[in-house]
Amino acid sequence: MYRYKCLNPIAEIGLKRFTADYQQVDDIREADAILVRSAKMHDMELPDTLQAIARAGAGVNNIPLDLCAEKGIVVFNTPGANANGVKELVFAGMLLAARDIIGGANWVQNQAWNPDIAALTEKEKKRFAGSEIQDKKLGIIGLGAIGVQVANAATHLGMEVYGYDPYISVDAAWNLSRSIRHTYDVEEIYRECDYITIHVPLLDSTRKMINRDAIAKMKPNVVLLNFARDLLVDEDAVIEALDEGRIHRYISDFPNTKTVGRQGIILTPHLGASTVESEDNCAVMAVKQLQNFLENGNIRNSVNYPNCDLGTCETESRIAIYHRNVKKMISRFTDVLSDLNISNMSNTSKGDYAYTLLDLDAAVPQELVEKLRSIDGVIRVRVVK
Ligand code: MLT
Question: Domain limits at 339?
Answer without folding.
Answer: 306-385
